[in-house]
Design goal:
single chain, Triger factor/SurA peptide-binding fold, three-stranded antiparallel beta sheet, 3 domains, Chitinase A, domain 3, alpha+beta, 15 helices
Length: 365
Amino acid sequence: MLRALIIPHKSSALIPRLHQMAAVGIASLAIAAAWGCHRAHGPDVVATVNGKPIMRAEVEQLYQNNLGDSQQQPSKEQADIVRLNIIRQLIDEEILMQRAAKLNLTATDEEVDNQLNELKAPFTQEEFNRRLAEKHLTLEDLKRQIRRSKTEDKLLNKEINSKINITDADISSYYNAHKSEFNLIEPMYHLAQIIVTSQPLPQQQQTANLQNSKATNDAEARKKIEMLHNRLESGEDFGLLAQNFSERPDTASNGGDMGFVSESQLHSSPEVYAAIAKIKPGQITEVLPVYDAQHKVVGYAIYKLLDKEAAGQRELNDPRVQQSIRSQLRDARSQLLRNAYLEMLRDQARVENFFAEEIFKNGAQ
């Protein structure tokens, strides 16, 4: 619109220059007035999406959670970059929430309460409250996060995932183009682990498992791993015990799942390899020592063999190959469509990022 006022159409070439300047001046005043009128906002608001405010307090809460217990404070520039990213995330979330509300897909109170009860189930009320405090969250904060997450899932499932169709031809085409990916040069072992160690957790990692269970010396570690082994022998679920008691933060949350490990990697620990080579998929090892770089015992482990794949070419008719390809294609297509969908919604939304403008204004001086 501004361009049309400033640059006259060819048929308007005879309009006197004075009239053009006057028109531009009036338009500029009108635009400036409108700009100033709709951009008024309080200091607690960092952005708006279609008039809905995003509050500074929420940004700061997420910023503090992002820092965790790090002793090293970022520079002002680094801190503001993080805040800009958080605000962009909140803007995108709000755009999705407004779209979901329009389609009547907002998560219900019952859905939120069910998810909350699942999260609380492994803990006592005192433990649950402590975890909330560690993350600087109130119960209402958590419920709001759950509602957003479930609402986004419902929206994307309806608008995107339900429309993705991976055909047999798609799978066949991918396999023929990537056949070498399914040729294993050595046996692969799909493993899960439960680790107990007397070593302290990294300073930034306060908990490794759902029960906040941590051995503090070798005697405690040995007693704990024997207890867990007995429970496994009694038929308890390996994944649940790993989530609740394993002291390896990077695998405990996934039920101890380590993914696939090559045979050559296992050979680097002959004791572990010998124990795993003796068992079948679904079985567990005996308790094994965990060593540090100086070959000193620092903990104990139990491994479960989930699956084993022999070396050689995997054919297209192998159900595991088809499932793997289907999952890859679905995930890739879902991510692409999600990005495109969000861009379209952004185009339709009226977004004002006051914090970004403030940063740019101060940085340009």
